[in-house]
Amino acid sequence: MTDHPSMAHNAMMLNFIDGNFVISDGTDAIEISRRDASVTAVPSFEKLEGAGMRIYGIVGIARLLRGPYLVVITDREEVGKIRSHKVWRVTGTKIIPFREFAPMDQTQEEDEERYLSMIRLVLNLPGIYFSYTYDVTQSAQRIAAFSASELQKPLWQRADKRFFWNHYLSEPLMQASSSCPQIHGFILPIMIGYCGIGTVDFDKANHKIDFILLSRRNTSRAGTRFWVRGVDDNGNAANNCETEQILVYETGEMSSFVQTRGSIPVQWTQYVNMSWAPKPVISDDSFAAFSAHFNEQIRIYGEPQLLVNLANQHGSEGRLVEAYGLNAKKFGRQLQYVAFDFHKECPKTNWGRLSYLLQSVAKHVDEIGCFDLKDGNKIVQRQQGTIRTNCIDNLDRTNVVQAMFARAFLLKQLQVIGIVKQGEGIESHPELDSILRNMWADNADFISKQYASAGALKTDFTRSGKRTIFGYIQDGINAVQRYVFNNFYDGFKQDSLNLFVGAFRVKSSPTSELYSSPFPRQRDTQRTAALAMFSGLVLLLVASTALSPLGATWNFKFVIAALWGSALAAGQLYVKRNGSKLVNRPLLVPPPVIKPKED
């Protein structure tokens, strides 16, 4: 893989000239009209004077009620290099309006600010990455398979659209580039997920190896933990993520191993309703959507497809496990389905039983193999198929098991090149062991924060190889944070993701009289009254308890306890009956309604 001749432009200057945006990297320049958002090449640089604003990339153009907004990267942080290609993380952005003033009424002004807040929410997610010279949306194996003509294409044209998060926002630039090739270099694909890069120096073996972990989250069903579950009619899975573990040697040789994760691939929903674990609703027949999903998996990754299902095999999760297994059996031999009840097999701290899972699928893992590239661009081995892992959320249990598979592959790779001797483990090299554990734990946290709005659980095991008291405490904190965000904030976050990737597109009206807002103007009186009532009741009970005399009789204490008990019982009953009305729901794209599966 060589530097692309049409790589994206690096640091640029943004100027405001003759009422338009002019963006230049010192060699090429484009002009974006603030009147109609048209994009053209600038033939001369004589007028590009003045300080301007330093930017590091164009995220795209967002079209809202007031008109277009230019979204740019204003700050970045270098993560490391993949071979000689630098990978950056976005640390600062700016949204610049094309028009400072536009005739809008109060409703439109309020909605516009809401839309802008949604764009900012996505831009502030942890884990937004890009590279000017390396395609972070493609695996090493897919890049190596490109023909010479494909490698001559601009970076954005050969990016994998599944992981090209600003594809929708870049559409105005893409359309203009068809008649003006100079624009190609100003289109910069960004990826949301995780990227970690570290270097290990094996002094005794005289080897230096770069260790890279890349997770690419799919845009096809961008969403949050409870508002997007299962697969849609086209087979797109919720929380679908491709994770690639790469080794780069001093000689330039490279090897990589790709895994995927995704929601249980049947059609089901699990909308929040204030309960701790809402009951899933499962479709009567998901086979068409199930088949569409795995036909696409096989087309992209090949065979075999090793499916590792870690969900509970009892209760509400058990019904999903049953549906998954039946569809996998019906699909055919291309799918190697393994159901491993993580919580049952690994109770409390007995996670050593994960080794049984690894042993049971060893044959299929060996068949899948990994990708090896030597002597520049010579492909020695291709990965055939992949491992698709899931639990109920595809977060905590999934990350633990994916890290285990990745660790097993890494050990084999290091044994082949002689760094680790037969019979030794990665633990014999503490620096590598630490990098591996911490990157996979960070990967878990980033994906969990993006999907579930709080850090991952069980990362103490990933980081240290054992469960700790502090880890259990942190799990409890993260679980409560997830509950709060999932019930009271994630509707807005779901809207934000739908707006960013173009699942919802703002339609501006020529006059305020014709404008129809997607947001309700009336306050939710039921929700407001419920919160006020419970807040007042809690304050009353706390005050009565605090003001009770020290020598209060048992009768008085009993009355206080009865009041507390009654309040809790009344609260639980109210939430059970009205919980779905009290949560924060998405408003831009209606969540799908699933016909329940008959028991």
Distance between the termini: 54 Å
Which residues sit in consecutive blocks of at least 5 with pLDDT less than 50? Answer: 1-5
Number of helices: 16
> Residue share in helices?
25-40%
Secondary-structure-based class equals alpha+beta
Number of strand elements: 20
In round numbers, the mean pLDDT is 89
Task: Determine the strand fraction and express it as a percent band.
Answer: 15-25%
Summary keywords:
599 residues; alpha+beta; 36% helix; disordered N terminus
Brief rundown of the structure:
The chain has helices at residues 106-123, 140-144, 148-151, 171-177, 287-301, 315-331, 342-345, 354-360, 362-368, 396-416, 430-452, 459-464, 469-488, 490-501, 525-546, 554-582; strands at residues 12-17, 20-24, 29-32, 39-41, 53-55, 57-63, 68-82, 85-97, 128-130, 191-202, 207-217, 241-249, 254-261, 268-269, 281-282, 305-309, 335-339, 371-374, 378-381, 386-390. It has 16 helices and 20 strands.
Write a structural description.
With 599 residues, the protein is an alpha+beta fold. The protein has 16 helices and 20 strands. It has helices at residues 106-123, 140-144, 148-151, 171-177, 287-301, 315-331, 342-345, 354-360, 362-368, 396-416, 430-452, 459-464, 469-488, 490-501, 525-546, 554-582, and strands at 12-17, 20-24, 29-32, 39-41, 53-55, 57-63, 68-82, 85-97, 128-130, 191-202, 207-217, 241-249, 254-261, 268-269, 281-282, 305-309, 335-339, 371-374, 378-381, 386-390. The strands form 3 sheets. Strands 6, 7, 8, 9, 10, 11, 12, 13, 16, 17, 18, 19 and 20 form a 13-stranded mixed sheet that branches. A 5-stranded antiparallel sheet has the order 4-3-2-1-5, with helices on one face. Strands 14-15 form a two-stranded antiparallel ribbon. Strand 7 and strand 8 form a beta hairpin. Helix 1 (106-123) crosses helix 14, helix 10 (396-416) packs antiparallel against helix 11 and helix 15 (525-546) runs antiparallel to helix 16. Residues 1-5 have low confidence and may be disordered.
